[in-house]
Amino acid sequence: MENSEEIKIAFWLGTLGMLFLAFGLLSLVLYYQNHFYKMKRKETELLLKTALETEKNERKRIAADLHDSVSGDLNAIRNYLTILQRNGSIVGNQEIFDEIRSGVEMALENTRKVSYNIMPPLLETYGLVTALTDYLEGLKKKTEIDFKVVSEQEEFKIAAPVAYELFRIVQEFTTNMIKYGKVTESIVTMVLSDTFFTITLQDNGIPFNFTQLLATSKGTGVKNINSRLKIVGADFVQNETETGNSFTITLKKEKCLE
């Protein structure tokens, strides 16, 4: 009997030990698996951040090249045409001259527009509010959308890298409004509290679910928005609204201010 009891005790102790060992191994596997996923996520975020930073630098370089090189060449041609006109060298060829001059002026204007869209000059010089106001005023003239910027301050001291990403996020949203939203009115509101900086984008266009669109869209627009939100560490919420769309981007004050 004693041997039987000892065998039972030994069996249960062995079983208990094996269970503890199994749970220990499982916990260890789960820990390392979780650690691996975290490392992979950090690696992905770092690659994404590097890619977007590279894109920003390339945009800056191309914008500078367009301004300094292409615009410089076009201005030189325009000046040369002016000299020819003053010297009377275009007698009998006024129509051709006018076409050339018109083409040069159009090329200059298009170069300025492309350069501006690639890297808004006001963003680094003045700040996010000024750059967005100027950008949306330009869109207002080209479209039938009444864009408005509402800000409690004339300007915020947003760190340049963060301001750039926020500008691109708003730009992506407005592009979608123009292409798909059938929007006639849109308001961009910026507020700085004691702890947070928020941007709210509202429009009266066709309602859509951002999360669903992110999961199903084959385009890059919403994916770019989501990527840039991750880069700046912003919280993003789609607000409930009876008509149109409303989104709020929130950043901790210490993360975004200079």
Break the fold down into its secondary structure elements and pairings.
Elements: H1 2-86, H2 94-118, H3 121-125, H4 128-142, E1 146-151, H5 160-181, E2 185-192, E3 196-203, H6 210-216, H7 221-232, E4 235-238, E5 245-252, H8 253-256
Parallel strand pairs: 1-2
Antiparallel strand pairs: 2-3, 3-5, 4-5
Helix pairs in contact: 1-2, 1-7, 5-7
Description of the molecule:
This protein has 258 residues and is of the alpha+beta class. It folds into two domains: 1-119, no CATH class; 125-257, 2-Layer Sandwich (Heat Shock Protein 90). 68% of the residues lie in helices and 13% in strands. The protein is built from eight helices and five strands; from the N terminus they run ααααβαββααββα. The chain has helices spanning 2-86, 94-118, 121-125, 128-142, 160-181, 210-216, 221-232, 253-256; strands at 146-151, 185-192, 196-203, 235-238, 245-252. It has a five-stranded mixed beta sheet. Strand 2 (185-192) and strand 3 form a beta hairpin. Helix 1 packs antiparallel against helix 2 and helix 5 runs antiparallel to helix 7 (221-232). The longest helix is centred in the first third of the chain and has 85 residues, at 2-86.
**Cα shape:** elongated
Q: What is the string of helix and strand elements?
A: HHHHEHEEHHEEH
- pLDDT < 50 runs, ≥5 residues: none
Q: Major sheet: size, sense and barrel closure?
A: 5 strands, mixed
End-to-end separation in angstroms reads 80 Å
Tell me how many strands there are. Answer: 5
Structural class: alpha+beta
Tally of DSSP helical segments: 8
